[in-house]
Design goal:
The protein has about 525 residues and is of the alpha+beta class. It is about 50% helix and about 20% strand. It contains 14 helices and 14 strands. The strands form three sheets. The chain has a five-stranded antiparallel β-sheet. A five-stranded mixed β-sheet has the order 10-11-12-14-13, with helices on one face. It has a four-stranded antiparallel β-sheet with strand order 1-4-3-2. α10 runs antiparallel to α11, α11 packs across α12 and α12 packs parallel to α13. The radius of gyration is 54 Å and the shape is rod-shaped. Its main location: membrane. This is histidine kinase. GO terms for molecular function: protein histidine kinase activity. It is found in: Cell membrane.
Length: about 525
């Protein structure tokens, strides 16, 4: 494609030059002949020689002009076309051959081609006047047509050489530039770039994250559909493209990210009642900050997702613990079978079944909701594996919930409180946890009490904050989710710490009972 364009350009240039520059060569030669003829015609020697019939001085002068100007001939004729000068002196006094002098004899300058004794020539005819204004003859200056054509051909070849040189230089430059551009665009073809841009645009527009990008001058260069939706919901209307981010969304603070070159992670921004969780990072190109990009989501959506994931992880932990305990029992049964201890095996199975039935019976008697009952069985298994005594208070009672979502939130509350208590008992001599459920008049009280080291008074106000933890990084989510679930159920949460040891969490939430069941 590129070669075809270059070839077309060269052809157009050749056509233009051949129709403009080549004719100028002939015109230049015509002007030269005409200028020489005019100069000779103005000489008094010529006009006086013609008037007085003296040819000898004219012949000497024109011969000198012919040699010095590299022309074919200079012929001076009188009004009867009789030669007064000629390259061949024997032709002096004879009539001019070749024709074309008629216009000049009438006092008009002319240029024409003709063929005489010296061959084909390009001739300039200029009338000669005396000082009184009377015409006495004509000066004819001739240039060899062979020479004219040779000069034209030379100019044509020169033009071709220039165009070819330009083509070679252009091709070389195009190759070098193409290779450089290839490196800049990582070797991709235009079709690949177009496809990549389309895919990039589709990905950015389809993501659930709001995305805004700015250049180094803080001018908005990209706003995806989710960002427009969230900002419209928050009251920021209009198209943000090509606007300065400080005018479009001043609270975002991307100009500070550009200036400092440092990212800002997980900022909470309030916009007309909507809380957005925003992360902003600078974009660097060759070590220089070339722009910045911000991603954000509605914090409410993230909280719902976190709650769902937390509930799933709680169920998964319970199932994993039950499965692990079951496998341990299967290993014991397999070992006793291999050893042939059938009587002892029978006693072990009977005892295990009896304990399990008693445990199931105890839980199902107090916990009427099957989902919560299954969950607690798994937690009991996990606690036994960890060497912890997990007790369900004898006076506990939990009727079946009218709404499955209520049990889901309650499992999140109880599960995270129990997990927190189990972690608190690590390294303790006495490892006991008591769980209690008490329902009365549409209200449910969930209590988790452990024998751990307690919580220092300075930390008691911070433990329900997201990310706060004394156990290292990437922790501090459990009690935060407990608080969020209690708030979602419109309940209240209380923390009671012993003077030296022990911690009690009390969650009281509204609880609708399924059907007509009540206490």
């Amino acid at each position: 494609m590129g070669s075809a364009v270059v070839l077309l350009v060269l052809l157009v240039l050749y056509f233009i030059f051949s129709n403009q520059i080549i004719p100028q060569t002939r015109h230049a030669l015509e002007d030269k002949a005409n200028a020489i003829a005019r100069t000779i015609a103005l000489m008094p020697l010529v006009s006086e020689g013609l008037s007085e019939g003296r040819s000898k001085e004219i012949q000497a002068y024109t011969s000198k002009i012919t040699r010095r100007n590299d022309i074919m001939f200079v012929v001076v004729i009188d009004m009867n076309s009789i030669r007064y000068s000629h390259p061949d002196p024997s032709m002096i006094g004879k009539s001019f051959a070749g024709g074309g002098q008629q216009a000049a004899l009438r006092g008009e300058e002319s240029i024409s081609e003709g063929e005489g004794m010296l061959g084909k020539s390009l001739r300039a005819f200029v009338p000669v006047y005396t000082g009184q204004g009377y015409q006495v003859g004509v000066v004819v200056v001739g240039l060899s047509m062979e020479k004219v054509q040779r000069l034209v051909r030379q100019n044509e070849w020169t033009l071709i050489a220039i165009l070819l040189s330009g083509a070679l230089l252009g091709a070389g430059g195009a190759i070098v530039l193409g290779l450089r551009i290839k490196r800049m665009i990582f070797g991709m073809e235009p079709a690949d770039i177009s496809k990549l841009l389309q895919e990039r645009s589709a990905m950015l527009q389809s993501t659930r994250e709001g995305i805004i990008a700015v250049d180094h001058e803080a001018t908005v260069t990209m706003v995806n559909l989710e960002a427009e939706r969230l900002l419209n919901t928050a009251g920021i209307k209009g198209n943000g493209m090509t606007r300065n981010i400080a005018d479009y969304w001043p609270e975002l603070g991307l100009e500070q990210v550009l200036a400092a070159g440092e990212p800002k992670q997980d900022q909470e921004l309030e916009l007309n009642g909507i809380t957005l969780l925003v992360s902003s990072v600078p974009i660097r190109v060759n070590g220089e900050v070339a722009g910045a990009i911000a991603t954000f989501r509605d914090k409410t959506e993230l909280a719902v997702l976190a709650e769902r994931l937390s509930g799933i992880s709680v169920y998964a932990d319970a199932l994993r613990a039950g499965a692990h305990e079951f496998m341990n029992k299967l290993h014991v049964i397999m070992g006793m079978t291999h050893m042939g201890l059938y009587d002892e095996l029978q006693q072990y199975i009977s005892g295990t079944v009896s304990n399990y039935q008693n445990e199931i019976g105890s839980i199902t008697r107090m916990i009427k909701d099957p989902v919560m009952a299954g969950f607690l069985l798994g937690k009991l298994s996990r606690a036994r594996e960890a060497g912890i005594d997990l007790l369900l208070a004898e006076d506990s009672y939990l009727p079946e919930a009218a709404e499955p979502q209520t049990i889901h939130e309650l499992i999140t509350i109880a599960g995270n409180l129990l997990d927190n208590a189990m972690e608190a008992l690590e390294g303790q001599e006495v490892k006991e946890i008591e769980l209690a459920f008490h329902y009365e008049h549409g209200s449910l009280c969930c209590t988790v009490e452990d024998s751990g080291p307690g919580i220092p008074e300075l930390m008691q106000k911070q433990i329900f904050e997201q990310g706060f933890s004394t156990k290292g990084e990437q922790r501090g989510i459990g009690l935060y989710l407990v608080r969020k679930s209690v708030e979602k159920l419109e309940g209240r949460l209380q923390l009671i710490c012993g003077k030296e040891t022990g911690t009690t969490f009390i969650a009281i939430v509204p609880y609708a009972v399924k059907g007509e069941e009540n206490v």
